[in-house]
Amino acid sequence: MTDQAHSLRQLVSAQRSENVGMSPRTSAGSAKIITVTSGKGGVGKSNFSLNFALALQSMGKKVLVFDADIGMANIDVLMGVSSRYSLYHLLRREKSMEDVIQYGPEQLAFIAGGSGLADLFSLSDSDMNYFLDQLERISSDMDYIIFDTGAGLSKENMRFITSADHCYVVTTPEPTSITDAYALIKVVHGTGSRVPLSLIVNRASDEREAREAADKIMLTARRFLDLDMQLLGSIADDPHVGQAVKRQVPFTVAFPKCDAASDVRRIALRSMASPVPAEPDAPKGIKGFMHRLLKRTK
């Protein structure tokens, strides 16, 4: 993976050059909504979400990270940031969206979900309209909104996953992780959702191991579900990642030249090249996401 560092730097440089002179938003209110999930815990899903967001931001994109892991939210811990307010305070109308949004390393914007996420699916029409109004106030200036969901097959996870523009499923080469990732994909597909699913193989010893792990899932999905997926990328099993977690600093910040950081930036570039699926007459961006989310809540 290290031997691709030079070509990656060229891609990043080219992307930055393309951004020069461009407005930060190409279409008002049309932020790309991505959910990041996994079949089981402990595969590095939240760590990926955080560093993926930072990689996008380093390429000139405006990014908001939404910690949507009910009960196990830890994005703030990975950044070493103490969350004073969460979604709970917004839904209770105790704080505004501007108060609830916090900033981590590199001024990355994030929202801590906390216990408020459980309340989100049982709001009154009045409270939901208030929430949507608050969310649109900040999301209209974003290029990406990344929802870091919980692991597994909870109803809340399924709602977030099937409402997004894209879903990234994080797995590792371990057999149990592969099995659980496929189980999640099977359930998502069974809902009838058309959300594109992409794989990210974390902690891969090399490209060959990553490809073998991904093929086990993708070939099975194609054979039994008639579902085509793509491998968006893999991330090296890099000791710098563990060191960064202990320091509570994202590894793309603490060790920007390490293999894992290069891999995440490569994934970010590929993500930027992936178009948002077109749905005729469907609202785009956060409005479309919330429209689908509420429809699946009823």
Folded structure, characterized:
The structure is a single chain. The protein is α/β, with parallel strands linked by helices. It is built from 14 helices and eight strands. It is 49% helix and 16% strand. An eight-stranded mixed beta sheet has the order 3-4-2-5-1-6-7-8, sandwiched between helices. Strand 3 (102-103) and strand 4 form a beta hairpin. The model is unreliable at 2-28 (pLDDT under 50).
Q: What characteristics describe this protein?
A:
single chain, 298 residues, alpha/beta, eight-stranded mixed sheet, globular
How would you concisely characterize the structure shown here?
With 298 residues, the protein is an alpha/beta fold. The protein contains 14 helices and eight strands.
How do the strands and helices of this protein lay out in sequence?
Layout: H1 5-19, E1 32-38, H2 45-58, E2 63-68, H3 75-79, H4 87-91, H5 97-100, E3 102-103, E4 109-112, H6 116-120, H7 125-139, E5 144-151, H8 155-163, E6 166-171, H9 175-190, E7 197-204, H10 207-225, E8 230-236, H11 239-247, H12 251-254, H13 259-272, H14 285-297
Parallel strand pairs: 1-5, 1-6, 2-4, 2-5, 6-7, 7-8
Antiparallel strand pairs: 3-4
Helix pairs in contact: 1-13, 2-13, 8-14, 9-10
The residue-averaged pLDDT reads: 85
What distance lies between the first and last C-alpha atoms, to the nearest angstrom? 46 Å
Main sheet attributes: strand count, strand direction, barrel closure: 8 strands, mixed
Unreliable segments (pLDDT under 50, ≥5 consecutive)?
2-28
Describe the global form.
globular
Report the portion of residues in β strands: 15-25%
Structural class: alpha/beta
Number of helices: 14
Helix content: 40-55%
The rounded Rg comes to: 18 Å
Order of helices and strands: HEHEHHHEEHHEHEHEHEHHHH
Number of strands: 8
Spatial strand order of the main sheet: 3-4-2-5-1-6-7-8
